[in-house]
Amino acid sequence: xxxxxxxxxxEILHRGQTVTTGIYKSPVAGAVWxxxxxxxxxxxxxxxxHGGADKAVYAYPFEHYGFWAxxxxxxxxxxxxxxxxxxxxxMLEDEVCIGDIFRIGAATVAVSQPRTPCxxxxxxxxxxxxxxxxxxxxxxxxxxxxxxxxxxxxxxxIELVQRAADSLxxxxxxxxxxxxxxxxxxxxxAARVAHFSPTWRAAFEKRLAEMV
Length: 212
Hints:
Elements: E1 3-6, E2 10-14, E3 17-21, E4 26-27, E5 32-34, E6 57-61, H1 63-72, E7 86-88, E8 101-104, E9 107-114, H2 119-125, H3 130-137, E10 142-148, E11 150-152, E12 158-162, H4 170-178, H5 184-192, H6 198-211
Helix pairs in contact: 5-6
């Protein structure tokens, strides 16, 4: 793991209105306690759609930093740029599956869903159109639940403990929910994946009901 990043909600001015957001994350030196619902020192502004047991922490692959630097013509990125708590390496969306369990330091985490960007990512990037580009690129990162709490720190190895059986990759899950062209068989499979967060599982069950 390259970096552990935290940040508490803050108020910012956006288009003449005050917006409260926790998307601004900064690297932490040393070990941090990873709890069931978040990292120590971290917080979310809108708990209806952020945080909670199924989205305790957000991981984003560092490999995407280079992609976005080229796409946007920028070289000012720092760890936590995309609002992630864990900046990871070697954990791309087409390789990591919903329900995969990993050990980080003394803690255990499990993949619960891809990230769906909201307008606050556009605020963080200084580009209101960025969430649409983020969605189109399908370089989403993923949320983690925390089956076992413990201290985590940058530089620690993220070890795969258990690969989820009969699951979907993070990329396929995102494509099926936010893209087009999924087959009936794919949605039947997605609806059977028990490891999804409740909102994603319900979305696939609804889509499948509409197709049959």
